[in-house]
Amino acid sequence: MVWKKHDYDDIPGTYVFDGERAHSSYALNKLFYSFNNVECRDEFNAAPAAYCDKFGLNEKQKKLVVEQQFLNILRAGTNIYYMAKFCIPRGVSVQDAGAAFQGISGDEFKAKLLKKRENLEQRLEREGGYWNG
Amino acid sequence: MAKIIGGVTTSHIPAVGNAISDGLTQEHYWKRFFDGYQPVKDWLADKKPDVIIIVYNDHGLNFFLDKVPTFAIGCADEYQNADEGWGLKPTSPFAGDAEFSWHLAESLINQEFDMCTCQEMLVDHGFVNPMRVLFGDHEIWPIKTVPLVVNTVQHPLPSAERCYKLGQALKTAIESYPENLNVVIAGTGGMSHQLQGERAGIIDVDYDLATMESIINDPSWFYKQSNAEIIEKAGTEGIETIMWLVMRGALGGKVNCQHKHYHAPISNTGAGVLLLTGEED
Predict the structure, then answer these.
(1) Phi, psi of B179 (to 5 degrees)
(2) CB 3.0 to 4.6 Å from A13: which of A87, B44, B90, B198, for a disulfide?
(3) Alpha-carbon distance B29 to A114, whole Å?
């Protein structure tokens, strides 16, 4: 049994959510998916470890969730959209998550993104045909 | 007969909905992004289309990873928004058009696009934010809707070219419906963004603008790329932009670009807005 290699495996710093990751992180994603329901969120908050057991997390996964190790949860293959249901209500945005991968703060990450706006209007003017305010 | 009167593209990221809910659309960070929608909103208000088909991906509200349809279509009279887990207040429900949806599903399946038909379908921010940014908030929405979900979350995904061909089949499906409906199609998602991994935070303005030009004038430039090639440029979440090709395939050959707007960043994302109509317009 072997997980097939893909073209996208070689893209640096990039983890594509495919069958291999979806399979290994299934219980984690299922637990986070349950957080769509407020009763489930409350149940988790009251007894996190017991809730993890209910979803069949292994010991390593359980430790990551109970300790809210957001970066390592993502490294464990969890899908970012499901992770968002866990981290956003705890004050950690997806931008903070992205920043953590680079070892910088959320504010530094946002500043890097804002740089994309520099000279954007001039760039679009040159391109032609764009609405420009 | 039903007729496609135009196609729109828009981002659907959660931050767009949050900005609307928090009254931030005229704040400096958001103003340019939201102001660039006005010509599209004016066009929609003027044309008053009967139905909008929203092409989007579900992010874990209606579909969990236990069952992931490649292509799914809502076939109900009503679609509810619901709690996605982070506290956004759900919107009022959206009217569907079950007869039209079932016709589309049947026609698409007859054309070998084996759609998953959904008689109950919760619509998440991927659907709701395009509605809010295009129409504003409403207790009773001014247009009927058809949700069309493409899997852009759990690979393997459909190819960009497959999305384009789905659009071509959708054109045939729409234009064979006997009722006189004016239909608009919204291709949502994108543009370049990557939320996780050491490469998180990429926005490739050059690639985004090339993609917008391609969608208008030469869709093959975009749809000839493999998903790996698109991810390399646009990021793991930027792959969503392939959903624009469903809209573009449905518009047919040449189009007129009535409006073109690009902004970056919104949250982590490059955002592109297009309003395309048929060549004769």
Answers:
(1) -80, 145
(2) B198
(3) 9
CA distances from B129 to A68, B14, B48, B54 (A): 29, 7, 19, 10
Q: Is A47 helix (H, G, I), strand (E, B) or coil?
A: coil
Q: What is the pLDDT of residues B139-189, one digit of tens each?
A: 999 999 999 999 999 999 999 999 999 999 999 999 999 999 999 999 999
B64/A113 Cβ within 8 A = no
At the topology level, CATH places domain A10-102 in Protocatechuate 4,5-dioxygenase; Chain A (1.10.700)
Q: CB A7: neighbour CB atoms within 10 A?
A: 13
Q: Please tell me the distance from the alpha carbon of residue A22 to that of residue B154, in angstroms, as a whole number.
A: 7
ipTM of the complex: 0.96
The domain ranges of chain A are 10-102
User: Number of structural domains, chain B?
Assistant: 1
Q: Does B262 touch chain A (CB under 8 A)?
A: yes
- Put simply, the chain A residues between 71 and 130 with a CB less than 8 A from any chain B CB are 74, 79-82, 84-86, 88-89, 94-95, 97-99, 101-102, 109, 112-114, 116-117, 120, 123-124, 127, 129-130
Q: pLDDT by residue (tens digit) across A55-67? A: 999 999 999 999 9
Contact check, Cβ <8 Å, B86/A116 = no
* Residues in contact with B8: Cβ distance below 8 Å, sequence separation at least 6, in sequence order: B40, B130, B134, B184, B185, B186, B187, B247, B273, B274, B275, B276
The answer to whether residue B155 is catalytic is no
Six-digit token string for B142: 């001014």
In this predicted model, what pLDDT tens digit does every residue of A75-127 receive, in sequence order? 999 999 999 999 999 999 989 989 999 999 999 999 999 999 999 999 999 99
Mark whether B125 is an active-site residue: yes
